[in-house]
Amino acid sequence: MRWSTPRPEPFSNIALSLAEDAAVIGGAWLLAEHPWVLLGALACFTVLMLVMLRLLVRGARRLFGARARAVGSAGLE
């Protein structure tokens, strides 16, 4: 997954690329040496992602629900 921009920003893109490489090498080493630790970290990140997704959906519903109610009530008057 590329999180960098296509614009020429060499320092940030180089740093991001090196961080991605380190994450892959570190993950491969962790998988080879301590697979249960990697599995635990993956489970924690998955739970964290689901919690963040729930909060995002909840916030979007709250934001767009209030907007729809405001537009709907303005049209009835």
Give the % helix.
over 70%
Instruction: Give the overall form.
Output: flat
Largest sheet: none
Q: What is the succession of H and E elements?
A: HH
Mean pLDDT over all positions: 84
Low-confidence stretches: none
The SS-based structural class is mainly alpha
Question: Which oligomerization state do the chains in this entry correspond to?
Answer: single chain
As a percent range, the share of strand residues is under 5%
Q: What does the radius of gyration come to?
A: 21 Å
**DSSP helix count?**
2
How many strands? 0
Please report the distance between the alpha carbons of the first and last residues.
Answer: 49 Å
Question: How would you describe this protein?
Answer:
The protein is mainly alpha-helical and 77 residues long. The chain contains 2 helices and no strands. The longest helix has 42 residues, at 35-76. It is flat and about 60 Å long. It starts with 9 loop residues before the first helix and ends with a helix. The model has no long low-confidence stretch (mean pLDDT 84).
List keywords for this structure.
single chain, 77 residues, mainly alpha, 2 helices, flat
In short:
With 77 residues, the protein is an all-alpha fold. 86% of the residues lie in helices and 0% in strands.
List the helices and strands and how they pair.
Layout lengths: L9 H24 L1 H42 L1
Helix pairs in contact: 1-2
